[in-house]
Amino acid sequence: MKQAIVARTDLGMGKGKLAAQVAHASLSAYEDTGSRTRNEWKGSGQKKVVLKGDSERTLFELADRAEREGLPHSIVRDAGHTQVDPGTVTALAVGPGEESAVDRVTGDLPLF
């Protein structure tokens, strides 16, 4: 079991902002995951990776792929109180789900 979080690199977010967006994405996708998968993921150590995405378009393309794989996923749109404009897409979480399925969606992206 695994979850991948993809954060945009083209926005120039600071480290704290990036961490907050990754956390929002992870929690949102987790909440949309069935209880059996949640429990299995929690019991196996909650494996996560944070990956680089170069644009909003990339995140939406990955979300479409996650949908086709039947994986929970969540796109984060920022409220715009600090570093980016309101509604800016900042991150995407894919999973938790079977590691092979998550890798089919995000496996070609570089680690953050």
TrEMBL record:
NCBIfam families: arch_pth2, PRK04322.1. This is Peptidyl-tRNA hydrolase. It comes from Halococcus saccharolyticus DSM 5350. GO terms for cellular component: cytosol. The keyword Acetylation does not apply. InterPro entries: Pep_tRNA_hydro_II_dom_sf, Pept_tRNA_hydro_arch, PTH2. It is found in: Cytoplasm. Belongs to the PTH2 family. Its EC number is 3.1.1.29. It catalyses: an N-acyl-L-alpha-aminoacyl-tRNA + H2O = an N-acyl-L-amino acid + a tRNA + H(+). GO terms for biological process: translation. GO terms for molecular function: peptidyl-tRNA hydrolase activity. It comes from the Archaea. Keywords: Cytoplasm, Hydrolase. The natural substrate for this enzyme may be peptidyl-tRNAs which drop off the ribosome during protein synthesis. SUPFAM superfamilies: Peptidyl-tRNA hydrolase II. Pfam families: PTH2.
